[in-house]
Design a protein that fits this description.
Jelly Rolls; alpha+beta; three-stranded antiparallel β-sheet; about 30% helix
């Protein structure tokens, strides 16, 4: 078994932005020179998330509306009361969506579905520079 690690930086511009990072995963797999294994992707931030979706504007809007219904911005959050930074909802949304994904790869290709992309979701109330760690294990 071998391992390979790559860290990429993703610059976001606003809350709710979704950025397709499938290419970064594919580049890491190619650079690793491994054929088969698992790729773990992790965003070490408490107000960002990683998801898989069909990366198209309609679904992106649907996800934003669903998050607004399930975890609204205008609710009182203890985090906001403690820190006054207005992003309590961002932390809760991140914890529900998750900070990591595991994607198997075979014969040098990520085992993603035809309409499935890996997407970073910016959940904070302002632009950020996000790191994404891609750790591969395989052969």
């Amino acid at each position: 078994m071998e391992t390979f690690r790559k860290t990429v930086t993703v610059n976001t511009s606003k809350e709710g932005e979704m950025i397709d990072i499938t290419g970064e995963l594919r580049e890491a797999i190619a650079a690793s020179k491994m054929s088969n294994g698992l790729a773990c992707m992790f965003v070490p931030h408490s107000t960002a998330a990683l998801i898989t979706i069909e990366y198209e504007p309609g679904l992106q809007g649907d996800i934003k509306k669903a998050l607004d219904r399930i975890i609204p911005k205008d609710t009182e959050y203890g985090h906001h009361l403690m820190w006054g930074d207005g992003n309590g909802h961002s932390h809760v949304r991140s914890s529900f969506l998750g900070a990591s994904l595991t994607v198997p790869f075979h014969e040098g290709e990520a085992d993603l579905g035809t309409w499935q992309q890996v997407v970073l979701v910016e959940l904070d109330v302002r632009r950020r520079d996000r790191k994404v760690v891609i750790q591969l294990i395989g052969e």
